[in-house]
Amino acid sequence: MNKIKRNTLLSCVFALSVSVFAHAAPVSAPKVIIDSDYNTLSDDGQLGVMAAQLQADGKINVLGITVVSGNQWLKQGVADALKSVERLGVENQIGVYSGANYALSHDIKTIRKELELSGKGDGYLGAWSSPEPMTEKDLKAPPDGFATKAKLQSKDAVDFIVETVKKYPHEVSILAIGPLTNLAQAVHKNPEIVPLIKQIIYMGGAVDVPGNTTPTAEFNWWFDPEAAHIMVRQPIPQVIIPLDVTNTVVMDKKKYDRIVNDPAKQTIITKMFKQLNGHGYTGTGFEEDPKSTMNIWDTLTIAYLMDPKFATEVVTEFVDVDMNFGKNAGRSVGYRGAAPAGEKLQKVKVVKRFDNDRFFDFYTDLLTRPVPVKLSK
Fold this sequence. Notes:
Blueprint: H1 3-23, E1 31-36, H2 43-56, E2 61-67, H3 74-88, E3 96-98, H4 108-118, H5 157-167, E4 172-176, H6 181-189, E5 199-203, H7 219-223, H8 225-231, E6 238-241, H9 243-246, E7 250-251, H10 253-260, H11 268-275, E8 294-295, H12 299-306, E9 311-321, E10 332-335, E11 347-354, H13 356-367
Parallel strand pairs: 1-2, 1-4, 2-3, 4-5, 5-6, 6-11
Antiparallel strand pairs: 7-8, 9-10, 9-11
Domain Inosine/uridine-preferring nucleoside hydrolase: 32-361
Signal peptide: 1-24
InterPro entries: Inosine/uridine_hydrolase_dom, IUNH, Ribo_hydro-like
């Protein structure tokens, strides 16, 4: 090969390499599984939007979304997740996996008896508030219809979690933003994955504040208290974002307007955010009641994942979850000193306060970017 041809070939190879690496996610981009009781565009769905936009930037590598019953029954959550990835244009990059439909041992008969003892908090029971959909005909379509291109992955959510953690040992972070049934089943079925999980970041629990679903329990951990009890005992690096902090991160009308009423940033996401703003709001929603407010929940986990400095106050303590029948089912308790004798608890990080102004800038930016997302080739 003559010198000119050789140099031309090397130049082409170099250019191709630069092109490939310019569009690839950086090596440091965190690998993530989103384990979620998915919904169209409440907190779980909002996190899905944020994750897709971060993935388009090469800042995160979402390996999959595993769905569990919680906010909605499993079938409805799966339908909403499939439409979400399709709406965002990432159905070929982010797979959706179906997981647990029922809690390990928290059924409706038990729940009714517990509520008689404890009373309701905000009265939110998630999936238990409506009949379980048994067929496709029982599902409620998102505002823009069911998915037509995105298809459910054939692999079960639990198997996906196990196989993915084994494939990427010490690299996978899990955002656990729903009941913990999938994760509890995964570590029970394959306990060898426990030391291989990089970290779990939960939105769950109410450590030093009252609960919401009941006076003592936060919804995600109340829905399956046995699963939560199992997971907080695992020797895995764990970060808990409980009601203690979510109660202090509040959206008001001004913040809401930044998302839905900026004429230069109108997308299907901002329009649906406005259409679905009733969930989780006081009164009748921002459009009718400008004094309405909404706490921010699951989306704090992805902010923390991207930069732990979003958390301005973090304590390290032992945390336990009451899985026993009674008025305190699902209650989370923190111990800053020694753990109770005989209890094999783990020290975990518990977030108490967030940099709210910085978070809302981050949150608003990701929710108002163009959709479908602009994926790197």
